[in-house]
Description:
The protein has 168 residues and is α/β, with parallel strands linked by helices. The protein has one domain (7-163). Helix content is 36%, strand content 27%. It is built from five helices and six strands; from the N terminus they run αβαββαββααβ. It has helices at residues 7-20, 49-59, 89-102, 125-140, 149-153, and strands at 24-35, 62-63, 76-86, 103-110, 117-123, 158-163. Strands 2-3-1-6 form a four-stranded mixed sheet. A hairpin with a 6-residue loop joins strand 4 (103-110) and strand 5 (117-123). It starts with 6 loop residues before the first helix and ends in a 5-residue tail after the last strand.
Amino acid sequence: xxxxxxxxxxxxxxxxxxxxxxxxxxxxxxxxxxxxxxxxxxxxxxxxxxxxxxxxxxxxxxxxxxxxxxxxxxxxxxxxxxxxxxxxxxxxxxxxxxxxxxxxxxxxxxxxxxxxxxxxxxxxxxxxxxxxxxxxxxxxxxxxxxxxxxxxxxxxxxxxxxxxxxxx
Length: 168
């Protein structure tokens, strides 16, 4: 018997290495929540949610995360699934109302270098978060989301809120 590897052994070894470098395939669903883009927000903009969804799907079909410490790609690859979801005017109004109630005067600013002075406001995110949480719960059928063991272990939909409020 010979102590060297046969060509078949080398091919099997190469295939095993190549197979181990193929990232684990995992779908990742991302919900894009469009607020104020049905002609009911700032500047009465409209955004076709179906076209946005198609654009994101074509532009970002996959995502491969990297290790924060080393920058090396992880052996996982997400196959992205995007859902663009417009919300109705009642939800826009409720969120605008919460935003207006949370506004705290923070000084003045100029519109342009030589423009008129306008008031500046700050908003503490925790003051409007409950209204966004209500919308999230309503959209994804979660009642009173808490932090029990069952709820922490339960998969939660990923949502990105894109907001276009009218002047509040």
